[in-house]
Design goal:
The protein is an alpha+beta fold. The protein is built from ten helices and 17 strands.
Length: 384
């Protein structure tokens, strides 16, 4: 009987829809929730266990014994039917996680589906409303300390206040200029968010977190919801599915590189680089509020290119590579050959992509910031 049921389970997991994890899409699944009727990967199975057996009962496909009733439940439901039930009203703004995404996103997706059943009972989707107010822990600009700050999301803007009873916000961030990404590893906070926006011609980074994963994903999704509503008004001919990729974007790649200055004799200095769409930023540290510099990445046909090695006459160090733009050539060095290959591939992908109309706004902002910085240096030299 056991061998027969094991064969039945082995056949079921090969069927279309069942051959990947019901929650994150990882292949192949190695576990199942037999009362919900879904096949799961090891990571999602662990989150299902945390829901409690009153919600999800988890078994290994190969290591546990299956009885007739459990196998029949899997045959009756399966991933496709379960998704039709538990994901029937997922709003377009909700980011459905994939394998490898931050744990908080995956955990809250699973809890939203099976524990809170937010996509069955739409009244529970409070994050799709046009107003949100609450307290988040915000990192100080120049020190590694976090303080409670009041945040308000309304009228296509995010505001935060330095004091609870303050009448005027410390900052008002237009959502059209705001990008939000989950940053648990860099912040060493499981529920950490990095907010990036343009402030006086430069990118400004704000770091916030909340003890509750549900709350931080609530804020993340609420920002995406309001941005989607705004974009649908601004671009009425576009569908929600076409606009979703522009709500929030994870950084393409980030990490430590060494970089020279504009002179061939300049020494290499260690910098934290972030590739954010077409904007390559470098900072003194991973948690800096402002980048030391920003480089716009245009199209390869407009004199943008990247290649291994340093130009002739320039100092070489470790695994160097050169990024050429119409303004200058930037020489950088990665700690390993694999890291260099990852950066070159990531930047090359951007250089090969056709520019969008909004990319020109980013280019202009970076250009104006560079001119402003250059003028400030000239004024200082004149004063000296």
């Amino acid at each position: 009987m056991t061998d027969r049921n094991s064969r039945r389970i082995a056949d079921l997991v090969k069927l279309a829809g069942n051959c990947e994890c019901a929650d994150c899409g990882y292949q192949p699944p190695e576990w199942a929730s037999y009362n919900i009727g879904v096949f799961l990967c090891t990571t999602c199975a662990a989150w299902h266990r945390r829901l409690g057996s009153h919600i999800s009962k988890v078994k290994s496909l190969t290591l546990d014994k299956w009885d007739d009733e459990q196998v029949e439940m899997m045959e009756t439901i399966g991933n496709v039917s379960a998704k039709e039930k538990y994901e029937q009203h997922v709003p377009a703004c909700y980011r459905i996680p994939r394998a490898g995404d931050p744990s908080v996103l995956l955990e809250q997706w699973i809890r939203a589906k099976y524990e809170r059943q937010e996509f069955i009972e739409v009244d529970k989707q409070t994050y799709v409303r046009s107003y949100l107010e609450g307290t988040l822990m915000k990192r100080a600009r120049d020190e590694n300390k976090y303080f409670p700050r009041k945040f308000v999301l309304a009228d296509n803007a995010l505001k935060y206040f330095s004091k609870e009873n303050a009448k005027e916000p410390k900052a008002t961030i237009n959502l059209s200029e705001l990008n939000v990404c989950l940053a648990p590893n860099k912040m060493n906070q499981e529920n950490g968010l990095q907010l990036s926006y343009m402030c006086e011609g430069s990118t400004r980074h704000i770091y916030v977190y909340h003890e509750s994963g549900e709350t931080i994903i609530h804020w993340y999704t609420a920002i995406r919801s309001i941005k989607l509503n705004w974009l649908m008004v601004a671009y009425p001919s576009a569908s929600a599915e076409e606009l979703v990729p522009y709500l929030t974007t994870d950084f393409v790649i980030e990490g430590w590189l060494s970089k020279t200055g504009p002179s061939e004799r300049d020494a290499y200095r260690k910098r934290w680089f972030i590739l954010d769409d077409r904007k390559l930023m470098y900072h003194e540290g991973p948690m800096d509020a402002y980048p030391r510099g920003e480089i716009f990445l245009g199209h390869k046909d407009d004199n943008y290119s990247i290649k291994e090695g340093a130009p002739r006459g320039c100092k070489d160090q470790d695994f160097s590579f050169s990024l050429t733009t119409p303004e200058r050539t930037y020489v950088m060095s990665a700690p390993t050959s694999d890291e260099r290959a990852r950066w070159i591939q990531a930047i090359n992908t951007v250089l090969e992509r056709v520019l969008r109309p909004q990319d020109n706004q980013s280019k202009m902002a970076i250009s104006e910031n560079r001119k402003s910085a250059r003028n400030s240096r000239h004024s200082w030299l004149s004063f000296l």
